[in-house]
Amino acid sequence: MAQMMLLITPELCTGCRLCEGACSFHHYRVIQPSRSRITVVKFEDRGLDVPVTCLQCDDAPCVAACPTSALWKDEESGLVVYEAERCIGCKSCITACPFGGVGWDAETNSILKCDWCGGDPQCARICPTGAIKWVRADQADDTKRRMVALRMQEVAQNLMAPKRAGV
Amino acid sequence: MDSESIGVAGKYGGWAGQILWVDLSRQKVVPKPLDEELALNYLGGTGFAARWLFDLVGPEVDPFSPDNVFILATGVLTGTIFPQASRHIVAAKSPLTDVYGEAHAAGHFGAELKFAGFDAVVVTGRSDKPVYIYIEDGKAEIKDASHLWGRTTYEAEEIIKEEIGDRQVKAALIGQAGENLVRFAGVFNDHGRAAARAGIGAVMGSKRLKAIAARGYRPIKVARPDEFYETMIEYGKRMLAHPFTPDRVKYGTNSLVELMQAIGRLPAYNHREGVFDEWEKISGERVTREYLLKPKADFACYQRCGRFVRVPSGKYAMVGKGPEYEGLDALGANVGNSDLEALIYANHLCNLYGMDVISAGGVIAWAMECWENGLLTKEDTGGLELEWGDPELIVQLIEMIALRKGFGDLLAEGVYRAAKKIGRGTEKYAMHVKKMEIAAQDGRAQKSMGLAHATSNRGADHLYAFPVLDEVGFEKDIVERFGEQYLPEMTDRLNPKYKGIMVAELEDFGAVVEAVGVCKYGTIIPPVFFYPDLAEALTLVTGKKYTEADLRLIGARIVNLQRLFNVREGLTRKDDTLPGRFTKEPMPRGPAKGQVVELDQMLDEYYQYRNWDVKTGIPRKSLLSELGLEKEAEELERRGIRIPP
């Protein structure tokens, strides 16, 4: 089976944080963004909203940093798997991750890391804008190209549209 | 005390279970458990505000005295993933209307307050020096805000995040307008989300309370998780599938400029007219095409009506929240202004200084019409010439109002007080109901809206009832929500018949919407979720069975309690009125040409349908006992107010 990935397109994100609600709900059956494994980083002064989560790296710094092999790469699915039983809570993975994709859950003394909800990521399911999509990794480029192409078409149409009288 | 797992929060889902009581005179914060009866019978938001204001603030309390109570309350669904469940309300006795005052906002603050463990904050007293309240995980402290005083809402929010050392902190704040007791100052959050009406920000200012900031790590629990989650996913799909949603995403509320021009309901020149010849220059289409950077969503919002805009260069260069329909009219058509960049900038200044664009535009429009008629002179204005549509003047006046400089000091009082002070017949041009400036609708072009402006408990306001289904189309939804027996008159926006019924019904429904913490977009327009959906969501979230009948009762209870607050302040039918412009001056031109508002006819129908006395507009005792408001009726009688049987 082809590997899947979460395709994140920040310029489509409008910052509703439904992904945070859905993620926490899937894992803990409550709405609790502080325990979500995906976070929309917001810069309100610049209007930016950027969903940040684990990217399931192939050569993952968190896996390399983990002293107890609580984190390991599943070559078949592509997921970086977290085994809480092996975790000693050293937080090396949080330090090592170049993206801020790993967090700390103070309630359980374990890490917060995306597990793809077992194969049906709820963030992608609930996202109303298409900023988070669950796609085949080898088709992600095509998905992205198509989204960009649609936007380019819209820009072109706006440029060519006759301006309204008096404006 | 920690009521995370006891009391209301231990028994039901949805509510955080704690209320933060703050006495600024004694500099004390006291978390108390949320009362179960209050939670179940009033739900939150506007329901809590109605209860607390009635119980705590009598006619003897001046809005700016320490005894006035400032309330910030979320709803039981706020912070859940119900579509658009981001809302919080602010309330107090209004310094603008002197009666029941309330305003609402979306954003991310309300949800964060619940994650921090509180359903609401109730503030009494007055601090000696500027302070703000910081809330985190069930605890709260009062912190010095001397360094924040004089800062804009945007600046102060950033400074608070910086000094708490946590960028995820959310805050509801006042700007300079609130500090300076501008009577229509609002409470702002998340960079340009505004609970702006009725001057509640000035009440914060009078208490020297700059902000309430919150950060939460706690959960919102849900009684029936599996059903709740799948139901919310389905609700989200229904929201996205509604034909209105793409338009909302693309234009926000701004496409209304075109729509309202088409039905002659776009107030221009201080509500004198209902069409604006230069409407295309301030249209939603133009805002999107030339200035929109992106739509912005509030917590759990599918509609994304927030506008993040940029004016790239020139004297009006800015980046931030852009105008919505009300701003485009209040600072555009209604003051004769078609300079869109100046309009966007003036709107931006209102967000920064923290004041209501509707009232700000309203006082400027009043002044301009008085100037046109020679009732204001350079002596009054300090040398300013108040010509219609002067973009530089409008921007200048916004700043003068917020800082109470020169002529702005008079305008900061609102149209009612300003006209009263000047006299000389300027009262005729003061477009207000219950002393609050009228929003961007005209009852002559849509009769239900005229009635809604007149009856709203917080003064001239479109959102209290929000009767919009008769604007254009929506016949199917009118049949579904009100019944076939009211066709065809109810769908005809120019026909006053059955509009009393529509407005009464929607006031009650609107109260439920504002009590549970969801948005009127998605519940009233587009009409996606109605009583049965809210009852279903409430049942799944709280675990207590709610029916449509329960919610109808709660809605009526809230509206009647707010009404009783106003009756206690001395208001009667004579205050449910409109300026003569709407009832006596026929609409001069446009699609609604020749129309006036048949207010008395609609009011009679409205009072009868509500079971209020037609002569006085006071709720009848029989109704009040059905709603569980006997004690309140007795209190009014003790004060010598006759409650009809």
Q: Keywords for this structure?
A:
heterodimer; A: 167 residues; alpha+beta; Alpha-Beta Plaits; B: alpha+beta; Aldehyde Ferredoxin Oxidoreductase,  A, domain 1; Aldehyde Ferredoxin Oxidoreductase Protein, subunit A, domain 2; Aldehyde Ferredoxin Oxidoreductase Protein, subunit A, domain 3; six-stranded mixed beta sheet; 27 helices; 40% helix
Task: Give a quick rundown of the structure.
By secondary structure, chain A is α+β, with helices and mostly antiparallel strands. In chain A, about 30% of the residues lie in helices and about 20% in strands.
Summarize the structure in words.
- The complex is a heterodimer of chains A (167) and B (645).
- By secondary structure, chain A is an alpha+beta fold.
- In chain A, 39% of the residues are buried.
- Chain A is 28% helix and 19% strand.
- Chain A has one domain (4-160): 2-Layer Sandwich (Alpha-Beta Plaits), CATH 3.30.70.
- The mean pLDDT of chain A is 93.
- In chain B, the strands form 4 sheets. A 6-stranded mixed beta sheet of chain B has the order 2-1-6-3-4-5, sandwiched between helices. In chain B, strands 8-7-12-9-10-11 form a 6-stranded mixed beta sheet.
- In chain B, 40% of the residues lie in helices and 13% in strands.
- In chain B, α13 (340-353) runs parallel beside α16 (391-402) and α19 packs across α21.
- Chain B is of the alpha+beta class and 645 residues long.
- In chain B, β14 (306-311) and β15 form a beta hairpin.
- Chain B has 3 domains: 7-215, Aldehyde Ferredoxin Oxidoreductase,  A, domain 1 (4-Layer Sandwich); 242-419, Aldehyde Ferredoxin Oxidoreductase Protein, subunit A, domain 2, CATH 1.10.569.10; 447-638, Aldehyde Ferredoxin Oxidoreductase Protein, subunit A, domain 3 (Orthogonal Bundle).
- Chain A binds chain B through residues 11, 14-18, 21-22, 24-25, 28-35, 44-47, 49, 106, 125-126, 128-129, 158, 164-167, and chain B through 79-81, 108, 115, 154, 157-158, 190-191, 216-222, 225, 229, 233, 236, 239-240, 278, 280-281, 283, 285-286, 289, 293-302, 304, 306, 308, 319-320.
